[in-house]
Amino acid sequence: MSDFTLLFKKYTNVANLTNELNSSVITLKRRNMAVDKNIIAAHPKIQVADDEVLNAKHELLGILSKLEEFYDKGDPTNYIYQLAENKLFKKHILDNVEYREHIRESVNKLKNNQSLNNEELTDIDQFVSILDNEASMLYRKLRSTRG
Fold first, then answer.
1. What's the pLDDT tens digit per position in 113-131?
2. DSSP assigned state of 82
């Protein structure tokens, strides 16, 4: 495979992961906001259907479980492995013991069908931000690479 093809595949995987994770976090944040009657009165479209919440929890659980699995095994076949060379990801997600514990708590809550609070979702936003940064860097590399 050419360098361009490998770079494109990595970019596509990271971009899709970013979109799935971001969409799930936004859905769950909307659900948390919809609890407040004043917010619903001012913004009625913020409400989220139960099936959307279930899908968001399912997607989020799948992604965070893969991250948790990577914490435990470091398996190169895990799609999280491709992010391990990113310095921000390594520093803030992989090597940060406190962050690992937050992810484990979030996974346990999702497995027990509990809701995540806004603080927990903000922790996951850090993961989204780093993924988004990685996708941007990969996109710039793609633009400058000739296939």
1. 999 999 999 999 999 999 9
2. G
